[in-house]
Design brief:
There is one protein chain. This protein is of the alpha/beta class and about 950 residues long. The chain has six domains: about 80 residues, no CATH class; about 140 residues, Rossmann fold; about 150 residues; about 210 residues, Rossmann fold (3-Layer(aba) Sandwich), CATH 3.40.50.880; about 30 residues; about 240 residues, Rossmann fold. The protein has 24 helices and 38 strands. The strands form ten sheets. It has a seven-stranded mixed sheet with strand order 16-15-17-18-25-24-23, with helices on both faces. Helix 6 runs parallel beside helix 7, helix 10 packs parallel to helix 11 and helix 18 packs across helix 22. It is flat, with a radius of gyration of 47 Å. The relative contact order is 0.07. Keywords: Membrane, Transmembrane, Transmembrane helix.
Amino acid sequence: MSWLPLSFGVPIVLWGLLALPVIWWLLRLTPPKPQTEVFPPLKILARVLKREETPHQSPWWLTLLRLLMAALVVTALAEPVFNPREKLPAEGSALALVIDNDWASAADWSKRVATAQRLIADASSNGVPVVIAFTAEKPNAEIGPFDAATALDRLRAAKPRPIPTDRPAIYARVAAALERLPGASVAVLADGLAAQGDEAAFNTLLSKNAARLVWATSDRLSLTGLTVADNQVDGFALTAIRAPNDPAPAQVTAGAFDDKGRRIADATLTFSPGESTATGTMAVPFELRNDFASIALDGEHQAGAVRVLDESSKRRRVGLLSQAEADQAQPLLSPLYYIRRALQPFADLVEPSSVDLADAIPQLLDQKPAMIVMADVGTIPEQVKQRLVDWVDKGGTLVRFAGSRLAAAGNDDDLLPVRLRTGERSMGGALSWTTPQPVTEFPKSGPFADLAPPAEVTVTRQVLAEPTPDIVERTWATLADGTPLVTGLKKGKGTLVLFHVTPEATWSNLPISGSFVEMLRRIVQLSRNQGAAIANAEAAATSLAPYRMIAADGELVPPTPDARPLVPGAGPLPVTFENPPGLYGSETGVFAHNLLEADSTFALLDRPQISLPVTTVQYAFDESRNLKGALVAAALVLMVLDTLAVFWMGGLLARRPRRAAATTAAAVLIALGALLGHADLARADDAKPGDAQAIEDIAKTRIAYVLTGEPGVDSISRAGLEGLTRFLIEKTALEPGAPAGVDIAKDELSFYPLIYWPIDPAAPMPSQAAIARVDAYMQQGGTVLFDTRDQFANGIGADSTSPATERLRDILGDLNVPPLEPVPSDHVLTKSFFILPEFPGRFAGSPLWVEASLDASNTENRPVRVGDGVSPILITANDFAGAWAVDENGDPLLPTVPADPMQRIYALRAGVNIMMYMLTGNYKSDQVHVPVLLERLGQ
């Protein structure tokens, strides 16, 4: 039952509200607890004659408070829900959840996830499994069936992909999974865009074992995509598309960004009423247009609204030069006519104002062109030749066309790719034995490798190249008889190119063919992208590594682990899971791989017409709110108020202020007495120098080390104890303070349970008084860990000892040292925290010496030996501090010998066992008596 906007999960509980009158009646008849007060005798006598009154019912406000509390509890048990949502049909044998997570779903992905969560929640309440599949994932991804919790985890882990959907493959997998689940509910969360093969995909999905369809869509498809970003003569031409279901006019703003993400230009595109295509031009100077790295539509957070640009989108300035006089009456005979027509769509053309080469060439170079085209230019003046050579060496591209002037000029090795024979070759004339030659297949090593040879092109005259060993490598196009038609050569950072025919249709019909335009465009691309990954046909045949990818939300991000190298080729390249949209290549040159093609359009996805029951829902967030928790919290607050009211009526709260007042009065009297000089209220200050430091030392357990006076030894000791302290904090409940360096001659030693003493023969010998202080420390329960650090310093033989061992003997000679033995296998040290058979440090092999056991043979009553006391002395030669020492980042300072990573771990564990042994003593030994104690207690 429900009353909008409120509903109840268990409405039958609301009948409990009928009990409120009974509760009211009971509360009215139950008086509050009488208030008890202690009065002075005179006040009691004064009230003897007064009539005693006892309340017979509780106050009305307390009754109302308790009735309200009971009503809140009853209402909360009915599980009220504010703004309840409609329960979605997720019953049957299973729920098949098919979700589009392509680029078109990125803008409202959170709404789609919320809708899918409601479907999974309803399936969970019905106890049915969930098959969940995403149409923009790998075809072999696991789809279930899963339980509701696992399905929710997979839903939360999913994200939109910047690629189109693959509905046929995914729908076929879901249909195969439903073969074992007849009568399932199928929920399709579509992106609203139609794709090729959708009808067959839906037939496959809904033809087997589907009992119901839940169709979830957006209220309207409001996608806008960018299909064209073409760098033309007057600006960047842009084309945007939208869904055909929006008849209203609209405007979108496109922004151009450089390679650092800075916005450098804008343009507005307008959709006319009923139109799904909008065009516009970003009119900025071509120097600024060449800095464009990407163009994106404002407000469109999806991959279809972004286009990345590569070198093919950048226009280059091309200089044109010819020695022939222009004939305005016959423009088709001009040497530059066909070159202008071929280059104008994708280059900015400049020409000199002078016909004199000495002036014309500097005029062109001053405008910094990327390429210069010379139509039948013969001898180049010496005063400008070197400047032109330097321009080519620095990266310029010089393209020359043959003609009578070049044929008569002879060779110019610096500005021609090959050496030429004097004169020209004529074919097909009355006095020639040869016929006009066609063009054959383009060499694979040239930039025209992937172009088809023009079958209609023939050559009647040409200039010939001198045959040289490298003539084949320099040939970019050949005739049928093997003579070069186009030759090229890399010179420095630039390129030299020679067409062995004229640029007008006199020696050949090549200038009036479509191949001529494509060949010039390829050369312009070569000049734009010198040294880039796609600058020539060899690189075009190789794979390009992912460089920057377009994410589903339109942001440029680093390559994902799933991205694979792209192999450019002829024709459009598909956008796939392995090749998402973005830039491929490297910093030296990139290839733009965009999501939408120039002819892309948006088509609406229609709901499949089927005979199954269909439920249509809109993507939306779940706005329902469960009020049970809020009502229970309100009831608890009222319960606290009721308790305080009962305390107040019982007089409990009334007596506390009096006690507080009495305490305050006493405090005031004491303060006044102190001010008036009452000596009996004052206390003498018995603080002594050093008390603050002593309190700080005993506030936390700290490990101490002896200051030897050697800086290197003391720094390793401190770093070692810091490393052990970190390990103790990480592995145990003990949290020691910072290690303390102590001077055994002056500092108080009793504050520390363990003192680490590295023996160094170079350090001065401690005085007798200092050794006596150490002896008193050991007699009072402290432990000193002596470390000679000389495991590999002792020589061969029983009498061969190191200087450190000799120094230790001198120190121990003045101490009351008990009998020592290596740690036995059953000693408490071997199991105080970790189970350790040995105690290595930076070195391994030396035993750890401890106080010898008094009753080593009695293993029945004391399986763990030396448990009643702690050994006052420990001796090792394994350099514990060297193994424990770490730097500020926690990295080890010194290597272990041998270089075994586990040796350092065992050394730290040995330090933990020693500290546990110091602090617990007989704890581990007493644990063996637990069974006997439990038996005596009757457990």
